[in-house]
Amino acid sequence: MKSYTYKNISPQIHPDAYVFDDVVIVGDVVIEKNVSIWPGVTIRGDKEKIIIREGSNIQEHSVLHADPGFPLTIEPNATIGHGVVLHGCTVGAHTVVGIRAVLLNGVRVSENCLITAGSILSAGPRFPAGSLIAGTPAKVLMALSESDIQNLKDTAIEYQDLAQEYRAHLVPCIHDR
Where, by residue number, does the polypeptide cross the bilayer (predicted)? Predict the structure, then answer.
């Protein structure tokens, strides 16, 4: 991991977070306990605060940024899929954001939601708890069932367990050339 102080503000990274070595974290960023951040992620808190709450996971090549007046908050046990862009928004607890989705300034997604891959949540809308959200521009398609919501919660637990396995078993390879 590469972390940088910016304008005298340093990232705060809980010692129990699992952060891959090529992640870049800049400025006003808070990463809580049992968060996992996977290869190629960039988190840039140079204009506004970014908070990643306990148990959440940020998967490969996602980009997190914010603008003045639009902080970025990821609530507990959220899953941010591969290649997601989060910009000045709020992602609710136990929400899963699908691969390559984009959430822009002012978007507020409540808890227990599923945002499908490739969806674009344009600046400003609010989405209710327990929703399936899809499209460009995104809209609520339906309410999720209790079993759907349990699957969202299970995804966060799976990534917490995977981070522990990586911590215990990942070893860099040294190749002779």
Answer: none
Q: Are 121 and 140 within 8 A, CB to CB?
A: no
To which H or E segment does residue 36 belong? strand 36-37
Using CA atoms, how far apart are residues 53 and 163, in angstroms rounded to an integer? Answer: 16
Tell me what pLDDT residue 175 has: 83
Q: pLDDT tens across 145-159, in order?
A: 999 999 999 999 999
| Residues 158, 162, 167: CA angle, nearest 5 degrees | 155
pLDDT in tens, 102-144: 999 999 999 999 999 999 999 889 999 999 999 999 999 999 9
pTM tops 0.85, yes or no: yes
CB 14 within 8 A of CB 1: no
| Strand (E) or helix (H) holding 115 | strand 114-115
- What the block records as the tokens of 101 is 């989705």
Half-sphere exposure of 144 (CA within 13 A, CB side): 26
Token pair recorded at residue 134: 């899809």
Pair 72, 89: CB distance under 8 Å: yes
Q: Is 147 helix (H, G, I), strand (E, B) or coil?
A: helix
Amino acid code (one letter) for 147: S
